[in-house]
Amino acid sequence: MNTYTRIYSVVQHIPYGRVATYGQVARLANLSGQARLVGYALYRLQTCPPNLQPEIPWQRVINAKGEISYDAFRHGNDHRQRVLLETEGVVFDANGKISLPLYQWQPQRVD
C-alpha cells in the first residue's frame, strides 16, 4: 500500500462529527513525524475535479491546536472545511478553535 493510500485509509475511518489531527493521522498510517505529508496528501484531494474526488472526509483533519490550517493555496477550501465540519455538528469557539477533548477521534485500531 503506498503512502497516500495509507493516509486516505486512516482518514476514511474518522467518524462523522469527529476530527483528527495531521500528526494523529500520520501516526495511525505508520508515518510518525510526517504530519506535513498528510496535509499535502489531503490538499491533493481538494485539487481534483469534484467528479473525480474519492469519498474521503478530508475536512475532518485539523491541526494540533484544534484549528483549520489556513493557506492561500487552498482557494477557499478553508472556509468550506469549516462549513462541512459545522454541518456535522462540530462547534468552533470565538477564536475559531475546536475542542479536541470533545471532538477528537480516539480509535482503538485502524485496519
From TrEMBL:
It comes from the Bacteria. The keyword Zinc does not apply. CDD domains: ATase. InterPro entries: ATL_DNA_repair, MethylDNA_cys_MeTrfase_DNA-bd, MethylDNA_cys_MeTrfase_DNAb, WH-like_DNA-bd_sf. GO terms for molecular function: methyltransferase activity. The keyword rRNA processing does not apply. One of its GO terms (biological process) is DNA repair. Residues 4-90 form the Methylated-DNA-[protein]-cysteine S-methyltransferase DNA binding domain. Keywords: DNA damage, Methyltransferase, Transferase. This is Putative methyltransferase. It comes from Gloeomargarita lithophora Alchichica-D10. The gene is ybaZ.
